[in-house]
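Progress against Task 2.4 (sequence-to-structure conversion) is shown through the following example record, which the project officer requested during the mid-term review.
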Amino acid sequence: MTHTSTRSSIPFPEGFLWGASTAAHQIEGNNVNSDWWRREHDPAAKIEEPSLDACDSYHRWEQDMDLLAGLGFTDYRFSVEWARIEPARGSFSRAELAHYRRMVDGALARGLRPMVTLHHFTVPRWFEDLGGWTAEGAVELFARYVGACAPIIADGVRHVCTINEPNVIAILAGAARTDDQPWPTAGGTVTPDEDTTRALIAAHRAATEAVRAVNPDIKVGWTVANQVYQALPGAQEATAAYSRPREDVFIEAARGDDFIGVQSYTRTLIGPDGPVPTPDDAERTLTRWEYYPAAVGHALRHTADIIGPGTPLIVTENGIATADDSRRVDYYTGALDQVAAAIEDGLNVQGYLAWSALDNYEWGSYRPTFGLIAVDPVTFERTVKPSAVWLGRLGRTRQLPRTAAPHTGS
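C-alpha cells generated for the chain above:
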C-alpha cells in the first residue's frame, strides 16, 4: 500500500513506550558464570575480543538510568542475567535477585518504566553443560528460573520479555552443528536447528505461564529478529520458504501473547537461490550491514501480517552501528518516519526502544558502536551523544516525525 502524509508529526499513542535497550552480558562486565564468558576465552571459538569489564554497568546502572531519564526517555529495557541469579543448578542468589530488584526500583524512582528481559542470549555454564535448550528437562529448568525471578518482576514491571531473538538462538544452534561462523545473523545461510526451535517455543510458553503466575497483570511476550527478507523479481516463493523457519514460526508462536517485540536493523535481499550479496555501492554500517532505515517499517508490517491484528507490536530494538553520529540521527529519522507511517495506517504499535543505550560489547567486539551514549573503555566515563539528545527530546515532545514523502509498504 502507499501512504502519504503532509503532517510534520503525529502524536504518540497513549502510553507509548519511548526508550532504549541494553542486555546484561553486553554492559555489565565480568559475567564469569555464563556460556559466553567461557566461549570468549576459548581460542577455538575465534572470538575477536572478550567482554571483560564491558561498560561496568553492573556497578554504574544508576548513572546510566540518570542519563536516560535526564534525556527525556520514559522507558528502559534491560535484561537480568540467569548465570548470576542461578550460578549453580538449583542454587539461587538472593543477593543477585536483590541487585536486579534495586534496578527496577531505581528505574521507577527516575520515571523510567522498566521492561525486563529474562534471557538475552546467555545461559549459565551448567545449563550449557547439560546440553542447552534441547537437553532433557531444559524447558522446566528455564521455567523454574523465571519463577525464581518473582522478587524482581512482581511489582512495578509492566512488560517482560521471556527470550530475546529465539530465531537467532536457533540459527546459532544450526551453525554449531555445521561448524559455520560463530555468530551468524538471522539473514545468513544457516538453517535454524529444528529441535532448538521447538524447545525455545516450549520454553517461551512455559515462561509465559510462570510470569503470569507471578503477576497476571504483567504484559509478557518475546522478541524476534526481523531480517526484512525482500524478494527480487521471480523470488517470491523462495523468499517465503526462506523466511518461514528463520522468522515466521517464531512470530506465529507469539499469538496469544500480550505483545511481540519487533527488532530490525537492515534488510536481506532474496533471489531464487537464497540471499544475494548487498550491492557494492550500498552504504554499510560498522557491522557491514546495509544502511537501510526503512527496515523497521517493513518489519512491523510483516510481523502484523503474520501474527494478525490482535497482538500489540513494540519495537524493542532498532539502531545503527556507526562512528558518525550524524548518520545515526539520519537513520533514526528515517526509521521513525516508518514507525509513524505504520501507526497512521492502523498498526497497533505501542512503543519504540532504540538499540542501544550504550556503546557496548557486540558479541565478539567493541568496534560496532550502536550507543546513544559513548563509554570510555578505561575510565568508563559516559559521554552523551547528540543523537541521544535529539532522540530524547522527541520523548518529551510526545511527537513522532513525519515527512511529506510517500511511504510504500510491503
